[in-house]
Amino acid sequence: MPDSGGSRSQRAHIPTSGTGPGADANPGTGPGADGDPTVPHGDAGALAVDPAAPQVTAPAGLPDPPVPAEAPGLPGPAAKAARRTGLLVTLVLGGLTALPPLSMDMYLPALPAVTDSLSAPAATIQLTLTACLAGMALGQLVVGPMSDRWGRRKPLLLGMVVYVLATAICALAPTAELLIGFRLLQGLAGAAGIVIARAVVRDLYDGVEMARFFSTLMLISGVAPIIAPLIGGQVLRVTDWRGIFVVLTGVGIALTLVVWKWLHETLPPADRHTGGVTDALRTMRGLLADRVFTGYMIAGGLAFAVLFAYISASPFVVQEIYGASPQTFSLLFGLNSIGLIAVGQINGKLLVGRFSLDKVLGFGLAVIVLAAVALLLMTTGVFGEAGLVPVAAGLFVLMSAMGLAMPNTNAQALMRTKHAAGSASALLGTSSFLIGAVASPLVGIAGEDTAVPMALVQVVCAVAAVACFLLLCRPWQRAGREAGGL
User: Fold this and answer.
1) 156: number of CA atoms within 13 Å, CB side?
2) Could you give phi then psi for residue 246, rounded to 5 degrees?
3) Rounded to an integer, what distance in angstroms lies between the CA atom of residue 83 and that of residue 62?
4) In the 8-state DSSP scheme, what is residue 4?
5) How confident is the model at residue 377 (pLDDT cuts 50, 70, 90)?
6) How many angstroms separate the CA atoms of 190 and 202, rounded?
7) Three-class SS string for the chain?
8) In percent, how much of the chain has pLDDT > 70?
9) Whole-number Å distance between alpha carbons of 386 and 382
10) How far apart are CA 141 and CA 307, in angstroms?
11) Number of C-beta neighbours around residue 323 at 10 A
12) What pLDDT was estimated at residue 350?
């Protein structure tokens, strides 16, 4: 994919962190270093634009990015083309990352109906959720290395086609066993959208621009879990549970066509890995041997476990223990999600670029720890009988702080892995799912009558995340070298 007219010159103005492999030894030669002709940051060719319009780039890749400073006289049509390209990147990648949450959560209101329709025990039908989640975790380990070897576009299109077929078969499944099997395949294929979207962001952006883009993706993908059950409930008003999979099939077809038409290859052939499984395993082993990458990966996974603990326990905590109605729970869940999304946008729009990513990340982790400790003290009765309002406030603060932790752990980890962004993205996604899946059942270990296990799991995971950040990432050793650092 040829460079656009301004991509290389604009890259010189994109701040980078200086934390990539080789940065300590030779900052001028590491991934993302100035002068590296193979890094298509902000390449206008990333998405199809009007060939008649001047091919300019939008480094931030965000809706309505500013006209590049080095081209103050950029004509109006060229500036519009840049903004259109950035908006398309955001919408396409946001749609890919939102598809797996839609696949999981749209189906939730239909579980009782599926149990009756297929004449299967509830525990068996619950395996359809487990299978999809396991597929999403394991699929990333497969698709990530594939995208490093064959590029981003082919594995993504293959994954989307398989997703569409698997989802369509789910709609027709006559037995619970067949539904479980194709839900597993649906998760495996849907993982392509998660892992390759992160890898594409790494291909196109660096430094603070990458962190900003992850914050923008959080706005889109964060809305999906909120609206998915509502969409599923409305679908069930006009059809049965099979109609939900029909709708998901249609969404998959639409996304496949959008990817085929507009998302072009972002990984140059010169940057691809040519080895097979052995080479992919060697690459992953090398990534895990990078102490700093592993630190960000585990810290992000532990922060994600705090989120999983909240999602798993909050329905029982808010409704069974504190007596809230389902409507009140839905309202509080939505407010917490809005808090996470809003802080994520503050992170991308205001904090990143003014403060170093490590400082913002450290502050977010500290707030998570403080909120989790406050919840533990309230649920154990240290402050007396705590009501719903203070507990809900603590959950809101904790969830909102995720908007500082999650995008910045991803950005800092991927900044070190230009040479293997697909494999790195796979490790990040799989570790988050696995750590979250381990932590999630622990919140109910003492039954449904106490919120202490939830708060305790959150405190342990949050403190462990801070420990990994400090002991493995050692941010003070790179102070002053991060983009936008103070």
Assistant:
1) 33
2) -65, -45
3) 8
4) P
5) very high
6) 20
7) CCCCCCHHHHHCCCCCCCCCCCCCCCCCCCCCCCCCCCCCCCCHHHECCCCCCCCCCCCCCCCCCCCCCCCCCCCHHHHHHHHHHHHHHHHHHHHHHHHHHHHHHCCHHHHHHHHHHCCCCHHHHHHHHHHHHHHHHHHHHHHHHHHHHHCCHHHHHHHHHHHHHHHHHHHHCCCHHHHHHHHHHHHHHHHHHHHHHHHHHHHHCCHHHHHHHHHHHHHHHHHHHHHHHHHHHHHHHHCCHHHHHHHHHHHHHHHHHHHHHHECCCCCHHHCCCCCHHHHHHHHHHHHHCHHHHHHHHHHHHHHHHHHHHHHHHHHHHHHHCCCCHHHHHHHHHHHHHHHHHHHHHHHHHHECCECHHHHHHHHHHHHHHHHHHHHHHHCCCCCCCCHHHHHHHHHHHHHHHHHHHHHHHHHHHCCCHHHHHHHHHHHHHHHHHHHHHHHHHHHCCCCCCCHHHHHHHHHHHHHHHHHHHHHHCHHHHCCCCCCCC
8) 77
9) 9
10) 22
11) 10
12) 84
| pTM confidence score | 0.66
From residue 232, alpha-carbon distances to 13, 32, 87 in Å are 45, 43, 28
Rg (CA), the chain: 22
Give the lowest-confidence range in 3-12, 355-364, 473-482. 3-12
- The answer to whether 402 and 432 are in contact (CB under 8 A) is no
Which tokens sit at 100?
A: 């797996």
> Which structure tokens are listed for 390?
């203070």
Q: In this predicted structure, what is the pLDDT of residue 84?
A: 55
Is 345 in contact with 219 (CB distance < 8 Å)? yes
Bigger pLDDT: 220 vs 426: 426
